Amino acid sequence: MDAPIHTPEMFAPSNGLRLCYDTFGDRTAPPLLLIMGLGAQMMLWDDDFCAQLAARGFWVIRFDNRDVGRSSYLHEIVTIDPAAIAMAQLQGKPILSPYKLRDMAADAAGLLDHLGIARAHIAGASMGGMIAQELAVHFADRVLTLTSIMSSTGDPSLPPPTPEATAVLLGPPPIGRDAYIETFCRNWKVLRAGSFPEDEARDPARAALMYERGQNPAGVARQLLGIMASGNRTASLAAIRAPTLVIHGVPDPLVRIEAGRATAAAIPGAIMLEVDRMGHALPIALWPQIIGAIATHCV
Known about the structure:
Elements: E1 10-14, E2 17-24, E3 31-35, H1 47-55, E4 59-63, H2 82-91, H3 101-115, E5 120-125, H4 127-138, E6 143-149, H5 163-170, H6 177-192, H7 197-213, H8 217-230, H9 234-237, E7 244-249, H10 257-266, E8 271-275, H11 287-298
Parallel strand pairs: 3-4, 3-5, 5-6, 6-7, 7-8
Antiparallel strand pairs: 1-2, 2-4
Helix pairs in contact: 3-4, 6-7
């Protein structure tokens, strides 16, 4: 079988911004939009992962969210004060942010508009899962199916990350290419929560690609604040009518398994797939299970 067509990177106007995207597979096939997580470039949907989904009969689209990679960067300066944010959450006070997850969902809907796609299968990982949930709530007519991967409802009472994963999330950004690659490799060993030699061997090249495509630490802070400002989606998730699959790793150190279970419980009719060896990552060894579950769900 020939390899699926992979386009070069392109740019789409969307929601007043410019989003970088590329596609895999036959444009006439059912569209599958992949949304990545906090500070994560679209390349973390690995080329081979996307190609395998395309080979299962989908037109696969991935893109850089706002404030990351080669998509538009915003300019507001924000400060993350975890103690102040926790107090605001306890007191029910709003958290001010330049944008929220719903705005990022509107970005994704704008990309669908640019591509002439009326409805698509939507899969999101981590923060991308939260954005995908917002799409299914607020842009319901655009969503054929929803797959929420290693994500959460935003309920602040759910278990927090492990100390090691918290250090990955809140650690200072590395300065320079060598430090970036070293930090990338170290952080993903923590997030995978296990030994995956094939991924570890690819990490330096992956890190170099991410570094060359562009770094925006201030944008990651804005994205993180946007997650916090978006609050608890549990009640709104009850409105989702798209067939929903929730995939979550049992040992996930960053977004704990309880968050995935809460997501599945909140969405009517959702199917839950718990993956024993999956941390907060999509390791190559588990692709057959993960890709198979997504492809079966989207048929």
